[in-house]
# Entry
Amino acid sequence: MKKQPRLTARVLAAQIIRAALALRAQRVLPGTLGNISARVDAARIVITPSSRPYETMRAQDLPIVALADGAVTGPFPPSVETLMHLAIYRARPDVAAIVHTHAPAATALACLGMPLPVQLDEVEYYVGGAVQLAAHAPAGSAALAANVLAALGPRHAALMAAHGLVAVAPNLARAMQIAEAVEHAAHVFLMTLQVSARR
Ligand SMILES: [Zn+2]
# Structure
């Protein structure tokens, strides 16, 4: 297989903004919630800034964060969930993009404290197994980063209790597909739960 050429931080930042706008259109990033990042090289990631509207975001607004010590370069502070992103990149060399959404069906399951089983084959295909639930911890905390890492294991998505969904992949396009597929499967699972409760 041909190796993909390495993209510059600015090109990755532009891709991240396009992805964020697509997720806004899917109604899974309410307000300025959620965050997206990509690995620039062995030492750095680029990530959405904290609490800034996606619609007016420019590629140069996205901070670059050092993997080793979290040092930030850029005009705005990085996402509040930067610790979680850094922990995943450090632990998972196969991951080069992370998408964190507040997609409603996945978040509903996460609020109910329920993992998403492999009810549809596509969950196995996209995630590599059931989507496990990370225990609750405050947003942005090291505890939440550790809980998400444990729930991910070697898989490609995890639910975050009373919070949302995280999808990880070798590239941004795949992370987007995983986030969308998990939300769809979570929606179907919730519908089946509603019908079986009435039988
Ligand atoms: Zn969040």
Remarks:
- The helical segments are 9-25, 82-91, 104-112, 121-127, 142-152, 172-198.
